Amino acid sequence: MSKGNAVSRAAALVGGGALLLTGLALLVLPGPGLLLVLAGLLVLSRQFPSLTRYVDPVQGRALRAAADSVASPLRIAASVLTGLALLAAGLVWGLEPRLPFGGWPTGVGLIVSSLVLFALLVWSYRESRPDGGGRGRS
């Protein structure tokens, strides 16, 4: 295995693993966590072909879950409130270093999580609109 190939595999493992773990964490929160699980599997399957068999089943469920996550105003509101709570927590943790794990490394992680949640929420909404805004896979 060449050095470039080893670096590529390591980057895929770290990046795909981070996406996969973040997606798994978002499965218990309101929001489209399966989309991140799918993204993680897609990244990992490029370097680890044995994972390819999991992509199609997860893709179908992820697209259905994305449409479901924006199917009602209550679900959208819950997702937005979760994102705002993550954003606020990130600011608090960043500005208050006396908190457990306080400081900007934790704060930035929470802020980035909120931005990812908002981006996936917008993407899900646009993709699931039946008026031609997305592919209308609801």
Number of helices: 5
Q: What is the approximate shape?
A: flat
Order of helices and strands: HHHHH
Q: What share of residues is helical? A: over 70%
Strand content: under 5%
**Strands, total number:** 0
Strand count, sense and closure of the main sheet?
Answer: none
Structural class: mainly alpha
Low-pLDDT regions: none
Assembly state: single chain
Q: Averaging pLDDT over every residue, what do you get?
A: 85
Cα-to-Cα separation, first versus last residue: 44 Å
Indicate the radius of gyration in whole angstroms.
17 Å
Walk me through the structure.
27% of the residues are buried. Helix 1 runs antiparallel to helix 2. It contains five helices and no strands. The chain is mostly helical and 138 residues long.
Keywords summarizing the entry:
mainly alpha; flat
Helix-strand blueprint:
Layout: H1 3-26, H2 33-47, H3 55-69, H4 73-95, H5 104-128
